[in-house]
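User: Quick sanity check before I run a bigger batch. Here is a single chain. Can you write out its predicted 3D structure?
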Amino acid sequence: GVGGLGKDLCYAMISTYLTIYLTDTVGLAPLFVGNLFLVSRVWDAVNDPMMGFIVDNTRTRWGKFRPWILIGTLINAVILVLLFKGPELKGFALYAYYSVMYILWGMTYTIMDIPYWSMLPSMSSTKEERDSTSVIPRIFASSAWLLVGAFGLKMIDTLGQGNEAKGYAASSIVVAAVFVGTILVTVIFAR
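Assistant: Done. Predicted structure follows.
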């Protein structure tokens, strides 16, 4: 269940702060950002079932879930940091960079998230046990959203020491580290 904390810290940071960061700190047009998020959700409608198919057909000595959870987490953590550590680009190049990075972030999150939640039914043979077990990662995931909502802005301000861009970048590194650490616990100990 502890993996739910890290993965949802990452998701909560994106959901809560990316729009504000892209419009207020980076300076992208709000209409562009909204359309980018729309295009990304449409792509997710195609991408998610494809990842489910890939996971269902994976056969490794580590199982079919754990390799994808680990690969997706590592790549997604790097992209999270790259999203909040803006490049020195301007104009079209800046818009293209964030378009590619945000869509990649969504795809790599899917690589980790689909097998993470798909693993639960495989860990139990009864519906009652699955239902009671699924509460544990949901508690950790909810805690992540609470932490980001309650302390996210304070963390950005403290780590940035008054420099908002630096605060977002440092906060993304902290979240990425917690994400990787908690998912490692899941990958190592979940059977």
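The chain has a mean pLDDT of 93.

User: Great, the batch can go ahead then.
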